[in-house]
Write a structure and sequence with these properties.
alpha/beta, 11-stranded mixed β-sheet, 3-stranded antiparallel β-sheet, 48% helix, elongated
Length: 562
Amino acid sequence: MKPSMDTTGDRDNLVLAGAGAVLVAAGVGGLWVSLHAAASFTGQPAPASNVVQLVVDVATGRTRWTTAATWVAAALVVGLLLVTIAGIILWPKKRGGAARRRMRPDYSARYMGRGRDVAHLTAAGSARIAHRLGTEGPGLPLGEAVAGGKPLHTSWEDMAILVAGPRTQKTTAYAIPAVLAAPGACLATSNKRDLFDATAQLRAARGRVWVFDPQRVADTTPGWWWNPLSYVTTETRADKLAAQLVTSARPAGARVDAYFDTEAENLISLLLLAAALAGQPMTAVYSWLTDPKEAEPVQALREHGYRLQAEALRALAQLPDKQREGVYGTARSLTGWLRNRDVLPWITAGAGEHFDVTAFARSADTLYPLSREGTGSVGPLVAALTMAILDELEQVATTAGGRLPVPFVGVLDEAANICRIRHLDAYYSHFGSRGIILLTVLQSWAQGAEAWGDKGMDKLWSSANARIYGGGVDDAPFLHRLSDLIGTAPRVARSASVSHGRRTITRTEQREPILTPAELRELPMGRAVLFPSGTPAVLTRPVPWWDGPHAAEVQAALAGGA
């Protein structure tokens, strides 16, 4: 603690002086209006027009206060009260309802990012950055700053991550507005149909809408199909697809056997490559896993010049019985979703056209990969399809000079459950510079740490340019981390003592957290904390879609689908 001047009393005196001046002005003005109006109504001579002279005349009795003046004054008071009450009632509605009323954490906004700190996050600031990048318009909406009330946006080179508990407006205030703000191609994962229902109709006006829905989350039947093997053009891509499928199929936090799990992933990679080379469907991979003696995959690898891969696959098939069954059994368990008959129409040739990842990456279309978590989840397919699109987007950006001409937006809702992209943190580290903008939505820090490990989640959070905490999380280490990142503010403490008949007031300055972990845990709905790169943390007001520019269209879409 250190001594400090306390200006609180001076500010209080100024406020009181200002309030007193306003009251005096209102009283004198009311006096003038009342007497002049009363004189006009009753036909009496008008009193002095000069305010000072009128006050003197009333004080000395030269101008009498009449009954008519009393009635006029009463009418003025009643009118003022009615206007005040109407303003109190209507102001929150005009400004967007209860979400814009002052809430308990709002006093802290004065100590956080505001004014010039957030100038680059305003619509104008974001648009200026967009112009420099060769595109137009502000980036993804981030709500409004509580201090100042300005709408905030990412730029078209900012990656975003949102951590918020259940029922904290993740979908209504972030996911839906982000999809609607996408200027080009867009991908949005979800385990519910609300995101699709709210945005599909509006996105259809921009391009074609594709729904990948093997579990009928949105009650959609297959009208097209995607062959995961179309991604496998080299042995490296076979390894990457196998790693992604295995990562998504394995329960988060599951223990991994150093030998059997590693060899099972290697086996799946070899079979994926063999199936792609042989022109077989994805289901062939599972069939070969049930029969290690099947010669076709080894032969396909050898015929296409993959001699070492063929030998590796043959060696796995010739392992001792128990060892071989351990490897093949592990691989079968990790690809068990291939047995799901509801999945097959979406990944094997049938009715409708084949989904062209390259064409999608160059379009303004929208893709909704939907899946539920738990038993029967097609999360591995959702993650594989998303990975294939992201890799293709990166290739398109490379051929376009390093950056997409029109930014791509990917909203990874429920990412840890149904779209667990392996090494997502690596994508975050460089995708922003390529115009591939991602918003990853998580329910807690622990959920992300379970999916990508502690270090992976740390890297994911640190690589994002816009980090949002939306409340609803009860995780002490995470909340302490956020409180430390928000920082401290000086608070003046005063103490009084009496000595030798004299009263002494001591003022000391203390540094206290701007928002304590307890306050962050209790963050009310309608408030969030934004941590932009290179900028102090900002207290924000999330703006749900019904307070946004597309409210009428979304409402009509939801009503039409009800």
